[in-house]
Structure formats: C-alpha cells, structure tokens
Amino acid sequence: MDAFFLGCPLWSHKDWVGEFYARDAKPAEYLQQYASVFNTVEGNTTFYALPRAETVLKWRDETPDSFRFCFKFPQKISHTLRLQNAKLETDAFFERLAPLGEKLGPFFLQMPPTFGGEEFFALVAYINSLPESFKYALEVRHQDYYGGGHWEKALNDLLAERAIDQVIFDTRGLHYYKAKADEYHIHDAQRRKPKVIVRVKALGKHPFVRFIGHPLIEKNEKAFIQWAKTLAGWLADGKKPYFFMHAADDFYAPRLARYFHRVVSEVLQNVEPMPVWPSEREPEHSTTQLSLF
Q1: CATH superfamily of this structure's domain 5-290
Q2: Which residues make Cβ contacts (< 8 Å) with residue 148, sequence separation at least 6?
Q3: Against a cut of 0.85, is the pTM above it?
Q4: pLDDT digits over 189-230, tens only?
Q5: Residue 170 three-state SS
Q6: Rounded-to-integer distance, Cα 183 and Cα 197, Å
Q7: How many CB atoms lie within 10 A of CB 287?
Q8: What Rg, from alpha-carbon coordinates, does the chain have?
C-alpha cells in the first residue's frame, strides 16, 4: 500500500472492536492497531476542537514513519469566521499539530455548502496566507464551483497556482441507493453528504479523494475499477494520492477499504498486500471471516 495512501475518516470507532480491532482492544490501543493496517487517516476530530499537546505527541509515537494524518481545519475557521480574521486560530492549529512533522499529510479545508462565489475573495486571501511548508486540500460544496463557469475556473487557477488539490468527493454510490424507510443512518447520510459533480482532476501532487460507498458493498466494484485506473494514471505521473473510504455507517468503512484495495491490486502491479486486521490475528479467528473479501 506504499504506492498510495488509503484510510478511513477516523480511527476511534468503538464498534470496530471485534470487527476490525482485536476483541480486547481498549480505546488507547485503537490508533496503534489502526496504523498497523492503514497508512493514513482523516483527522476529523480537529474540526471540533484541538487536541492537547501531549495527545499529539502520543499520536506521533504510536504510528510508523510512513503514516500520514490529514487533519481538518477547525470549523471556527471555515464555518464561523468563513476564513476572515482567522489568523490566531490558524496559527494555533498549525502550532499544535506541527510536532507530527513528516507524519502530516495535506491539511483538509472543508468549506460549508453556503460558501459560494460571492465569498471567493476571502478564499483567495486565506489560501495565499497559508504557510508554504505544509500541504493542503480544499473541499468546496457550493454549486458555483461545479457549473463549469467563471467561479470554477477561478478556483482551479487559484489551486493550480499554489499546487493545492481540490478534494474529490464521490457520493454517487450513496445517492443512487434507494434507502428503505427504516434505514435511518442512510437517510441521514444522504441528507448531509452533497451530491456534487465528480471532477477527476489533480491540480497538485497529492490527489485527495473522499469516497462514500454504496451501502451494498459489492455494488461499488464498477466505481472501484474506475478509481483504480485513475490511481494508476496519477501514480504514473509521479503523484502520491490519498484515498479515504467512507460509508453511511462508518462501521463498514474498513470493509469497503479492503474491497477497494483488492480491486486496486488487480489493476496495479506491485501493490503490497493489505495487512491482516488486528481482529484476524487472534488464534480463534474463523476462516469464514478471513474469506469475506
């Protein structure tokens, strides 16, 4: 998996105990077990609050050198201040996470769906204020940036100039699914996750894909084959892609990621096997579980 980065939106998921994590896994062991399989993670926790300084050092010490954290900018910066007068918050964000050093992947700036072209000037100013020593990825959800018009071109020009990748948010599988009345988690995901045009482009060196899978795992195979071919093209161009696997219920995110890795392995040469899950390292683990994917 060293050819590209593959991970999930989080590592602290108690329902993964016995499924992905070992049956006796404690919360303090989650990250180490997660990082024994995946080589990156979305750091959504920083959207809500900054971790303590000692926690950051613990994260650094519990992960291998090849691991990458892709932390989300705090919501106060992106949603409350809408990128304006946010220097203090931005400096605090970078300062707190800087001890991770080389384990920092692209910082992930997610803008609210109401952030359209009329606020583009604030985005330009903020992007240009960011230190060049870090990597970044930007997610926009407003339709102004997907219509093929002035604002989409302006955004592409801005990101290309700074070698920043636009987050590719592929929610097609989720929205194609016709949820039943009692599938509340799927209805909720369809409500919260935007249905935007998928622009398969890489403006920087680190293409950043967030894929929300079809709730029926096998229904993702066609999309996975297409994405595997895209990954192959990016890798041939010398890029280092990040691919994050989501699900309407993130209990299934590791399963989707393993399925995707299998498909990628069939398309690309020399992809390292995905490591055995912590739950599967236990002696009594059944062959039925091992053969799921």
Answers
A1: Protein of unknown function UPF0759 (3.20.20.410)
A2: none
A3: yes
A4: 666 666 667 778 888 899 999 998 877 888 889 899 999 999
A5: strand
A6: 25
A7: 6
A8: 19
